[in-house]
Amino acid sequence: MTLSVVIVNYNVKYFLDQCLASVFGSNRQLANGEQMELEVWVVDNDSVDGSASMIRTAYPQVKLIENHQNVGFSKANNQALLQATGDVLLLLNPDTIVEPNTLCHSVDFMQSHADCGGLCVKMIDGKGNYMKESKRGFPTPSAAFCKIVGLTSLFPHSRRMAAYYMGHLPANEVNKIDIMPGAYMMIRREVYDKIGGLDEQYFMYGEDVDYSWRIKQAGYENYYLPEPHIIHYKGESTRKGSLNYVFTFYNAMSIFVNTHFDGPGAKFYNIIIHIAIWLRATMAWCSRIAKRMALPLLDFACAYGGFILIKHLWATFWASNIHYYPPEYTTLVIPLYILILMLSAWLGGGYDTPYKPMRMTKGMLVGMVMLLAFYSLLNEEQRYSRMLLLAGSLWTIVSTQCIRLVCSFLHLPGYTLRHNQPVPTLIIGSDKETTRVTQLYTKVHPSPTAITTTSDTSPNHLQDIIRINHIIRVIFCAHDIGLEQIIHLMAELKTTGVEYTIAPKEGEFIIGSDSVFSKDSALVSHIDTISTPLCKRQKRLFDIVSSTMLLMASPIMILLQHHRGTFYAHIVQVLTGKKTWVGYVGHEGVFDSAQLHPNADSQMRRQIELQYMHTYRLRYDATILWHNLRNI
Known about the structure:
Layout: E1 3-9, H1 13-24, E2 38-45, H2 51-58, E3 63-67, H3 73-81, E4 88-92, E5 96-98, H4 102-112, E6 116-124, H5 141-149, H6 151-154, E7 175-177, E8 184-188, H7 189-195, H8 207-217, E9 221-232, H9 243-260, H10 264-317, H11 327-347, H12 357-376, H13 386-409, E10 425-428, H14 431-444, E11 451-454, H15 459-468, E12 473-477, H16 483-492, E13 499-503, E14 509-512, E15 516-518, H17 519-524, H18 533-552, H19 554-557, H20 567-575, E16 580-583, E17 589-592, H21 602-614, H22 618-627
Parallel strand pairs: 1-2, 1-4, 2-3, 6-9, 10-11, 10-12, 12-13, 16-17
Antiparallel strand pairs: 4-8, 5-9, 6-8, 7-9, 13-14, 14-15
Helix pairs in contact: 1-2, 5-10, 9-10, 10-11, 10-13, 11-12, 12-13, 18-20
């Protein structure tokens, strides 16, 4: 066997389908005239998206290993490597697409370079941009420091400052490198036999650094090839802002140092790494808080300014005294009014994305009604002005909507208010394929689309179409255009800034850089499921409020219980979030969604649960809890 390809999959069925299609569609003719024998292993880490059944149906030639839990990247790869028979081994990510000549060219290079223990190739992302993660240097303290503080970005071609990505080496030349990316890591069989499989201490991230190091320690070289390319849809940048990524990635670096280095140098490096962990974690946390709070703070500032202006105008022209209202009205009462309005809007989903104007308006109107009702209960000396409360609330509603209009004008993600505007799209392929893809795309895409089609693949012609028609998205028909040509066209057109997606030869889906359009997505795109932030927030708020009320009424309620021993335990579990009153998949509940149907069989109970999840309403929980008040 010439080549064994090993792919570890976890809930990326559509990406995996594209990846396997590109692998099996690759050329098999090697430079020496022999046919490349190929076997493909897929290790599925307990995916729940139907990946395994898709493989069995569409790719019966794949050797499938199904795990019943997510065992991690390293261990899953080792499961297949132990059984693989190829003279050359390739670890390949499922969210990649290889050119037709990628595999043969890589094998040819390895066979003609005896010192080559491992190799990788140039990666481009879903928009045709070169990914600097294609080649990396060892993460020395200085290299890691430059990356952490941003010097690598400021000096991308410096040997010292950009050492982490070996920026001094041209991206279009063959070079010896330190670290190969785990997305495409080809290994010589004799190297694997000599140094063994991946270190299973690494659950995710770091295993490529460790293995590349071990290859060089064994006396071999790691090579970077600029041609041919692969498309890597997801990459390191997709999660680097998350706290989980920071801790997982830098913990992997700590494992690497502890495994391969000894002495005071290793201790110093570990100190640096742990400083980096907390530094990056703090930066990620601050960045996340800043992004989340920027808009609410702007809302508060505009609303406060409006309230103050209205107060001054009203005091001047109605009371003829600009100092008519006491200082505490400005410093305490007005901020309290605004916070209640904003909290009401938040509870109503006004701050969720994608932004929906009516949620913000309804939420604040509810808050205004609550304020007016509370105002009527106050003593006369505490009632400053109903007019100011009403006018200020209306100003807050208007100002928040105006801010969203500005966000929409600036094309900020999640705040576009032009949902009904066409999305200019170019579909490239034959008449037959563009017709098929147009029908699929208009069926699954949530908004109307202005579609242009062409069969001309000349870069200059395509650039003219994109410019004249203001194209935002380009779809390539893989039935008519080879992957090699698609990749080169993406590179040629990357300056246009358009999004790229690929429609496979067969199948009811279109795959893009950050999303997958499928017929399944069309069925659920407008369903307000229990997984949405609004529904989860409402459900949790109901749990807290109802549990608190039950706890306050417990001296009486406990006398009515059929099972008094669990009454307080269940209330405490719901209050602390360990349980919810009405459970569903993945969330333990005191009661279940089929509680009102005691005679339902297992199949019917499953359908009720799905209906509960897909059409969740707060009244469902209230009804179930009400009917079970004596069974808590």
